[in-house]
Amino acid sequence: MRNSKKQFFWVAAFLAAGWAGCTKSGSSYTTSPVTYVTVMNEAPYGPAATDVYLNNQLASGTAGIASGAYSTKYGPLQPGLYTIAFKKHGGDSLLSQIAGQQLLDTLGFYTMILYNDANKAVHSTLIHDDFSNISTASANYRFFNLSPDAPNVDFYLNSASTPTFSGRTSADNTSSENLAINDFNKFQSTAASSYNLQVKVSGTDSVLATLNGQSLAGGNVYTIFLTGVANNMKINVLQASY
What we know:
With 242 residues, the chain is mainly beta.
């Protein structure tokens, strides 16, 4: 597993070129097909911790994911069809199940999210993270509003007069039946630099959360997301790595 402190794009492109699953001629060296998954528990109005079940089995390394916690990198998994369920930690109480069987394909990158909607109900979703069009020179990022208590919000890079994203509602990146066409799950590029990140109540100067001095490096990929509850919101930055 490589550390994506180096440019993530080059690693992903290398894998996509067909390295995984190949066999070196004349030797016993093989690499097994693999898919990559990351998990986010952003349901503050759920239990204190949750477990992830794949095909009715507790997924390795996913026991007791605390509310507000998330994977710091993608973990490898055997490709295949999976039923995906979130249960209360240590019990059999079902919190949410992603409908149907989900194909986690070879060399695919996926994000599982447990979240609350604006009514505080617990839901889950699976996003196929598409790195096919990311820039090798610029920084690549997207923004999620995962705070169930956040009103419509605007997201700013530095002190720009115009927000990068405006009117973002809670969990709006999960609102399409086909998440592949939900633009909020796609990455866009910006100049590699250090940024001050800010989320405001949409159309106002009322600041909900700030994160200063965040480095966004060229060729790397970031998910920037707002979490937390009223009067205690936070901007998080997850750099894609595995």
